[in-house]
């Protein structure tokens, strides 16, 4: 359990303590853009790998709550929404993604009209679904880390982008919203049929179906998808 705790802390600190703070600029200036991204990626993927290993090694017998049948059903719905959101969000050109600022020249489209952080919201839904379906301490640590990272990561990214002086960034931040549907309800944006990425939608459903049948092999438990 100690290994899992340390890995979760390193994973959180790497993202929230470096990427979303002035330390990011300090490291980029001292190491250079390529070296910084290399070190950052190594820490991120390394700690994630240790997290997965630690989670797989610890016993899942100390339950803080026992999930109900209703919780399992809600988790399945959240998982479908999360996978569709992640896939469709990954396919849209998002200026908030790494090294994608050139997308600021494009019109806001797709899931960006719903939220400027579709992938992060998808990960948040993914983690919440698994928290509902798993009440043991290890699962709370593992998936709770992704809940914290996704939500506070969005806040951190927005805080950093609001300091940008580029008018393109200012316009993008004012037009879009972090919270889903706020920009649409306020009338700043309108979601049109052309904004639906049918390839991404179908791929999201297909991924859900594949993971549904493979879940037992991956997790060693019952299918919670």
Provide key terms for this protein.
single chain; 225 residues; mainly alpha; globular
Calculate Rg over CA atoms: 19 Å
Helix content: 55-70%
Number of helix segments? Answer: 9
Mean pLDDT: 88
Q: What's the overall geometry?
A: globular
Secondary-structure element pattern, one letter each: HHHHHHHHH
Query: How many beta-strand elements?
Result: 0
What count of structural domains? 2
Low-confidence parts: none
Strand proportion: under 5%
What characterizes the major β-sheet? Answer: none
The end-to-end distance, rounded to whole angstroms, is 25 Å
Query: Structural class, from secondary structure content?
Result: mainly alpha
TL;DR?
This protein has 225 residues and is mainly α.
If you had to describe this structure to a student in words, what would you say it looks like?
The chain has 225 residues and is an all-alpha fold. It has 2 domains: 1-58; 64-219, no CATH class. The chain has helices at residues 2-19, 23-31, 33-57, 69-91, 118-133, 137-161, 167-175, 182-185, 198-219. The model has no long low-confidence stretch (mean pLDDT 88).
Describe the secondary-structure layout:
Layout: H1 2-19, H2 23-31, H3 33-57, H4 69-91, H5 118-133, H6 137-161, H7 167-175, H8 182-185, H9 198-219
